[in-house]
Amino acid sequence: MYEPLYKSLYRIRRVEEEVARIYPTDKLKSPVHLSIGQEAVAAAMCAPLDRHDIVFGTYRSHATYLAKGGDLKAMLAEMYGKGTGCTKGKGGSMHLIDIDAGVMGASAVVGTTIANAVGYAYSVKLKKQSTIVMSFFGDGASEEGVFAESLNFAVLKKLPIIFVCENNGYAIHTHQTKRQGLPDICGRARAAGLPAELIEDNDILTMHERATAAVNALREGTATGPAFFECKTYRWKEHVGPGEDFKLGFRSKSEAQPWIENDQVKRVAALVPAVARKQIEAAVEAEIQEAVAFAENSEFPDLSELTTDVFHTVSTPAAIQKAA
Ligand SMILES: Cc1ncc(C[n+]2csc(CCOP(=O)(O)OP(=O)(O)O)c2C)c(N)n1
Ligand SMILES: [Mg+2]
Fold first, then answer.
1. How many structural domains comprise the chain?
2. What does R_g of the chain's alpha carbons equal in angstroms?
3. Which of 61, 182, 202, 322, by CA, is between 20 and 30 Å from 20?
4. From atom 11 of ligand 1, which residue's Cα is the shortest distance away?
């Protein structure tokens, strides 16, 4: 169990470190919301899912995309704005999608994919499929009206969905306690009728154990409706971008320090035998190098792509120029 978990964790951490390294060169054509420090949530919660199961994420979804098996080459090419990217270079980091891997896309609009995930779970139920849907969102998203509406509908219709709130304590620069009169997200889920569990300290092994139990319960039919997890975690980097934000004054490095010391990547690394660990790390490094080269060597989309995948179609370059 520790080896696949370590591979998933290490891969996310190293991909995002590479993204942070490349970002200042301006080769990446997309803003990036990094999950460095938070990888454990996606790695643990996605681990028990099968490839045909479905996840919906947010603009901070590199970790979810990778943990669910999303294609790394298509992800990096997307962030480079290349035509080989997962949305042909049109969406960037905030709109990662890999339908084959069950990654159904993300949105920059906070909270929106919670309802998308519930809608998907409703279709699963109507079609009597065995798919499990997982919805990832932040603590800030739990303040959107769509959160309450979606939870209510999921309970009402007994949908096969697991909600995962990645509670990193902040919505941009504002702490949860400065936004929520009652900072108890699990409490709100329970009020909607869901079984809700709070997992503290970014604890990957507890998350893994609890996610496995919830997924098995849905598969075996011992659970007949949705489940909810609030996973406490911490973002090490700035809200958007590759740097740090401790100088802005809304949080301190000393607040972050215990989370950094409680690094789950290092924790799981120590549980994997050294030989296996080195093999995993070498394989991930090779995959990243190959994916970066793929992204760099790919072409930008053709000009004609400007007018495809849009609601209003203007078909020829001459027509584009005329429209402009
Ligand atoms: C509907 C909507 N309102 C506001 C914003 C601006 N905004 C972007 S990210 C963000 C914070 C969301 O915080 P959280 O859900 O905790 O996610 P995190 O960034 O911490 O992962 C806000 C308010 C937005 N994108 N969409
Ligand atoms: Mg947050």
1. 1
2. 20
3. 202
4. 171
Q: What would the pLDDT profile of 172-206 be if each residue is shown by its tens digit?
A: 999 999 999 999 999 999 999 999 999 999 999 99
**What number does the ligand 1 atom closest to the CA of 171 have?**
13
Domain residue limits at 109: 2-323
CB of 230 closer than 6 angstroms to any ligand 1 atom: no
**How many angstroms does the Cα of residue 140 sit away from the middle of ligand 2?**
5
Identify the CATH number of the domain in which residue 108 sits: 3.40.50.970
Residue identifier of the C-alpha nearest atom 18 of ligand 1: 138
- From CA 229, how far away is CA 243, in angstroms rounded? 29
Cβ of residue 34 lying under 6 Å from some atom of ligand 1: no
Q: For 76-86, what is each residue's pLDDT tens digit?
A: 999 999 999 99
Mode of pairing for the β-strands spanning 54-56 and 161-167: unpaired
- Number of Cβ within 10 Å of residue 200's Cβ equals 11
- Percent of the chain residues past pLDDT 90, beyond the cut: 93
The number of helices, as runs of H, and strands, as runs of E, in the chain is: 12, 7
Pocket test for ligand 1, best of 16, 172, 231 (most atoms within 8 A of CB): 172
Residue 165 φ/ψ, nearest 5 degrees:
-90, 115
Angle at 72 between CA 66 and CA 77, to 5 degrees: 130
How far, CA to CA in Å, does 91 sit from each of 80, 254, 293? 10, 36, 20
Q: Which ligand ends up closest to the CA of 142? A: 1
Indicate whether residue 256 lines ligand 1 (CB < 6 A). Answer: no
3-class DSSP assignment, residue 181 = coil
Whether the CB of 67 sits within 6 Å of ligand 1: no
